[in-house]
Amino acid sequence: MKNTKKYKIIILLSYFISIFVWNIFRFLLQLLQYAVFKLSGNYIDIFNLNHTSVAVAMIAVSIIIYCVISIWECEKK
């Protein structure tokens, strides 16, 4: 039962870390977009993803991390 709790905590942490990384990436792309707009005068939508696809991607990352940790724990025994 302890391992299950540990996995849930790891999945939650990976989810929040992926949200944090996503926000940093999005911010950097918006800075790039602003720089392109200032230099050329043209507005280019570089990164147009809706929130549903981002949420699905973060859930997929969490599931992959869970599977990797599960396999690693099984091989460790």
Can you characterise this structure?
84% of the residues lie in helices and 0% in strands. Helix 1 runs antiparallel to helix 2. The protein is mainly alpha-helical and 77 residues long. The protein has helices at 2-40, 51-76. The protein has one domain (2-76). The mean pLDDT is 73.
Number of helices: 2
SSE topology string: HH
Molecular shape: rod-shaped
Q: How many β-strand stretches?
A: 0
The quaternary organization reads as: single chain
Low-pLDDT runs: none
Which whole number gives the mean pLDDT?
73
Q: Can I get a quick summary?
A:
This protein is mainly α. Helices cover 84% and strands 0% of the residues.
Supply the key terms:
77 residues; rod-shaped; mainly alpha; 84% helix
What is this structure's SSE topology?
Blueprint: H1 2-40, H2 51-76
Helix pairs in contact: 1-2
